[in-house]
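Subgroup meeting minutes
Present: P.N., E.W., G.H.
Scribe: E.W.

1. P.N. recapped why we're keeping a running log of single-chain structure predictions: easier to compare across weeks, and new members can see raw inputs and outputs side by side.
2. G.H. added today's entry (294 aa).
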Amino acid sequence: MINLIRMSDLTTEQVYGLIHRALALKAGSPPLHRSDLFVSNLFFEHSTRTKHSFEVAEQKLGLRVINFDTDTSSVNKGESLYDTCQTMAAIGCQVLVIRHPKENYYTDELAGLTVPVINGGDGSGEHPSQCLLDLMTIYERFGRIEGLRVAIVGDIKHSRVARSNYHTLKRLGATVVFVGPEAFEDKTLGEMVDFDTVLPELDVCMLLRLQHERHFGTKLSDITSYHQAYGLTLERYKKLKQEAIVMHPAPVNRGAEIASQLVEADKSVIFEQMTNGVFMRQAILEHIITGNNL
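Output recorded in log:
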């Protein structure tokens, strides 16, 4: 059974295949159409972009989307994630998209599951579809990933986006550095560097959301101080190369990770990432459907 759980599930050839397929779909290539297949999006964390772009992608492929609402589901009666997923499979869902606050939920919770899964984000673990749409956006702009210099800026410690992107960008030949407060450093990935020093060298400035919900009660006491030390201010923006791009997985904390007036500045591709997310998630769904001979 083919799943998309971690970016390591994909070969380099498959990563580039998904990028090219998503770009082809964006250019007007006809999508796979399977109105006989049922899919359900099981989101146990709040989501706007990921959940709804999967829904749009599914409908563009003609898939039948079965609504799942955690607030009205039997999860509130104590049903396990495994039993919930097996229930959805038993009633006819052939693909599940799952977001869950537990990191690596799929390792123990879904062993033995009989339906393919796309990981829509697991705690602070991985976010493969976001990584792939980010790669698509970078490739669309530069025509390559190898040799690019990328800074991932912000809450590295709690970011599933940082993990998926770091490992895959490195695998594809990019140079990746980290910027942020020491409290948000993940030494297993790498040490932080000075933002102002690396700015003029960057091709991609990838900002991360401050994830207050994962700080377990700790909050930055002064957002203004964070913005001045680690945010993309207008002054920092001006130091970027003319061809550099600014990325953010969103939602954006304006005035924290990025000055509000820069969210839609010329170098920003933040909303283009969202547009590309639909096409990439179509490509991912096609990959899962064809790979599982559904």
